[in-house]
Structure formats: C-alpha cells, structure tokens
User: Fold this.
Amino acid sequence: MTVRRRPPNLIRSARLGALLALGLTLTGCAEIGDSMSAAFADPAKYDLYDCKQLEAERKALAMRGAELEGLMAKAQSGVAGPVVAEMAYRNDYIAIRGQSRFADEAWNSNKCKASPPAAPVKPVAPIASAKPIAPTARAKPAPRSRSDASVY
Assistant:
C-alpha cells in the first residue's frame, strides 16, 4: 500500500492563502472604527443643550479623548501593545469621537460662540501699616465635677 503525499507547494500555498484572507479580514475591521463613530453615540443627546452646557460638554469630551489617546499610545509601547490598546481603549475612543461630533453639530446649529476666558485676578498687596492680628486666647472649659458625669 502506498501513501500518496501531497506536494509541499500545495500546502504552502494553502497556508499563504489562509494568512492573506485573515490579514484582509483584520484590515477591514480596523477601518470600520473610523467610519462607525456615529453608531456608538446618540445623535439626539445634545438637541436640548444650551450653549453653556455644550461648551462644558465639548471641553469634557476633548479632555477624555486626549486622555484615551495618551492611554492608547502608552499601551502600544508594551509587548502586546497594539492588541491591548485596541481591546481596552478603542471602543471608548470611538464613542467619544462620535459624541464629540454630535456635540459639535449641536454647537454649530445653535450658533454658539465660545465664552471669553476669565480675566486673571490681580493679587492684592498687603497694607504695610496694618498691625498683625493677635490670635485670641482660647477659653479653658470649666472642670467637670463628679456629679455632672453621666452614667452609662
């Protein structure tokens, strides 16, 4: 009885084809995240917000987005960094981007304008002729007599 062996070229080409198909599949998944940011956010969430609320929300979303970008960059410096960054932070980052987009749309539709930054407060110089205030002496409590003590 003879065993028929497959040629090694056929096995290699099958493995190569499987790896190529897997690579193309994963590449498609990586591109979905950028185009689907709106799917992770509620488009009507900011419809009833006024400009002051929208300004605070946009700042909070920008800070959270920057924080997530930093966490993803930090995670990618590790051994399995890209996988950890995608698994742990990518969905939150996509959701924040979608919310930010809808907050910006509401900002523009309400014709909001950014409030000017608060003017810095000048420190008040101490008055040179003022006398320092002496601390008041604390009054000592009266000693308790044995008749005042409560019994449990």
About this structure: The mean pLDDT is 74. DSSP finds three helices and no strands in the chain. The helical segments are 8-35, 51-75, 81-109.
